[in-house]
Design a protein that fits this description.
The complex is a heterodimer of chains A (about 180) and B (about 350). Chain A is an alpha/beta fold and about 180 residues long. Chain A is built from 6 helices and 6 strands; from the N terminus they run E-H-E-E-E-H-E-E-H-H-H-H. Chain B has a 7-stranded mixed beta sheet with strand order 3-2-4-5-7-6-12, with helices on both faces. In chain B, strands 9-11-10-13-14 form a 5-stranded mixed beta sheet, with helices on both faces. Chain B is globular. Classes of the chains: A alpha/beta (about 180), B alpha/beta (about 350). At the A-B interface, helix 1 and strand 2 of A face strand 1, helix 7, strand 8 and helix 9 of B.
Chain lengths: ~180, ~350
């Protein structure tokens, strides 16, 4: 992997920014160069949230992603908005619980993961984001429990430390799907 | 790598200020810099510092004036419209020769404008911003690490030269997270015998004031201040050169646009176009020397800016218009893309730099 540009997008509240921060810390733990850039604006609850994460072997140039290598779409508006921007040969991960349509492009690899349903069924309804991150890391060949634990410990506050194992379970669930 | 943490640019500024010994922060919230105030609100009470959300930007800058007069490291932060409000105070700080750090995380203007990134306060920052003849030292970070380092540097320069240092960032730089090492070297603050901290009945009292009704005296103050400015121009200009050794074309860019430009330069190089970049780190003093040197060497310069073309004037002055200087820009919160910069590079390369 030289440089991977990843765009995560969904509703506010789905944990998009958190998932991105986890990815960035995972990269940092692996000794990579990383950047994390959120969309910011006059957002309201239920509005769209997205963030751009770049993980690279070299210093990161522009932190702004116009054409992601990987798109993680957690809702339909996100897929509608960003499907066209993915580079040919890129990857789209879609939460198929919330996105009923199929990806229209045929020059990208698509993974449909019913992340929201899986999260509810397994007793951690707020961790659909991490199920998708698990799949993403598996695709990248970066699924490694020790590094993921380190990264999780950086993004989960000490007060919520009991959530670490649950997050790890969600990651594993995604990787195995 | 172990000692690096991921931080937003805004948070890095706040933490670096604390590391630099700043224990007084006054501000008023405005997007996209509010994380600075939020960080200070959380941290300052725990370390015996002062965080105060003032009733307005104008109040905040005058509180800065007060603490600066008492000789302590002090800061405020805002975004474009808020800096306009603070500009009266910035002029008073200059007129009273007081050191302070001011952060502008720019957003699109004019007026209330928008809240997305911009670099359109370049003129405002480098030409003083308020009334009267004066300058601020203007530092333009292009990474979260530099957000931290230049904050420390800003306090040091402010104290050394008794003037305001401004960190001129933009919404992207403020909001993005990158790994940052907070192992920052801080020089101790110099003695400030001029500070108004009480005479203990042992010396004549100090006066901090910008009012001077005798024209002969006021002229003298201005002349002296500009002698200091000239010294700063000679000694404190900072810049980074990227692939300039064999460059036939040069890009001038600072902050976020310099990062976008780097992507474009790497791509252009792959296509055989010899292009490099001069990235001013201090916008005032503007790094004239590297541009002067480039003017004898390159065929054209492209100024990449998130404004209608402001730094381009300084590039033309520095190069004495010896080479054509073109503008590649987006405004209003839009950001130039690497593709747009690459097109601009190809355009000048195609006609060999001729206008």
């Amino acid at each position: 992997m030289s440089t991977k540009q990843m765009l995560l997008s969904g509703f506010g509240g789905q944990g998009i920014l958190f998932a991105g921060k986890f990815l960035a810390y995972k990269g940092l733990t692996d000794g990579k160069q990383v950047s994390w850039l959120p969309s910011y604006g006059p957002e309201m609850r239920g509005g769209t949230a997205s963030c751009s994460v770049i993980i690279s072997d070299e210093a990161v140039g522009s932190p702004i992603i116009s054409n992601p290598d990987i798109l993680v779409a957690m809702n339909l508006p996100s897929l509608d908005k960003f499907e066209k921007s993915v580079v040919p040969g890129g990857v789209i991960l879609a939460d198929s619980t919330l996105i009923e349509r199929k990806v229209e492009r045929d020059d990208v690899t698509v993974y449909y993961i019913p992340a929201t349903r899986l999260a509810s069924e397994n007793g951690f309804p707020t961790l659909a984001n991490m199920i998708l991150m698990g799949k993403l890391l598996e695709i990248l060949g970066e699924f490694n429990a020790d590094d993921m634990k380190v990264a999780l410990s950086k993004v989960i506050s000490a007060k919520r430390a009991d959530m670490l194992e649950t997050n790890l379970k969600a990651l594993e669930l995604g990787a195995k799907f | 790598m172990a000692d690096k943490v991921l931080m937003k640019g805004n948070e890095a500024i706040a933490e670096a200020a604390i590391i630099a010994g700043c224990r007084h922060y006054f501000g008023y919230p405005i997007t996209p810099q509010t994380e600075i105030a939020a960080y200070m609100a959380k941290k300052m009470p725990k370390i015996g510092g002062v965080f105060l959300q003032a009733e307005s930007e104008i109040a905040a800058i005058n509180m800065v004036y007060g603490v600066a007069a008492a000789g302590k490291r002090v800061m405020t932060s805002s975004s474009s419209p808020g800096i306009s409000l603070k500009s009266e105070g910035l002029s008073y700080l200059a007129g009273s020769d007081l050191p302070a750090l001011v952060v502008n995380v720019q957003r699109g203007g004019p007026g209330l404008g928008g809240i997305q990134p911009s670099q359109s306060d370049y003129f405002q920052a480098t030409r003083g911003s308020g009334h009267g003849d004066y300058h601020m030292i203007v530092l333009a970070p292009s990474s979260v690490q530099e957000m931290a380092e230049l904050t420390v540097k800003g306090f040091e320069l402010a104290d050394t030269y008794r003037m305001t240092s401004m960190i001129l960032a933009d919404g992207t730089m403020g909001q993005m997270m990158e790994p940052v090492s907070l192992d920052l070297e801080v020089k101790p603050a110099p003695e400030k015998p001029w500070a108004t901290v009480g005479t203990k009945l042992q010396r004549k009292h100090n006066i901090v004031n910008s009012l001077s009704l005798v024209p002969e005296e006021l002229e003298k103050f201005n002349f002296e201040r500009y002698e200091r400015y000239n010294y700063i121009k000679e000694n404190e200009a900072m810049y980074e050169e990227y692939l300039m050794d064999d460059a036939e074309y040069a890009i001038a860019a600072f902050g976020i646009t310099s990062r976008v430009a780097k992507n474009a330069i790497n791509e252009a190089r792959k296509q055989g176009i010899k292009v490099g970049m001069i990235r001013p780190i201090t916008l005032w003093p503007f790094p004239v020397a590297p541009f002067k040197k480039a003017a004898d060497k390159v065929k054209a310069i492209i100024s990449v800016e998130l404004s209608m073309g402001q730094m381009i004037d300084d590039v033309k002055l520095a190069t004495e218009c010896k080479v054509p200087v073109t503008l590649c820009n987006r405004v209003g919160g839009m950001i130039v893309s690497p593709e747009q910069v690459l097109e601009a590079i190809k355009a000048v390369a195609e006609n060999g730099g001729a206008k």
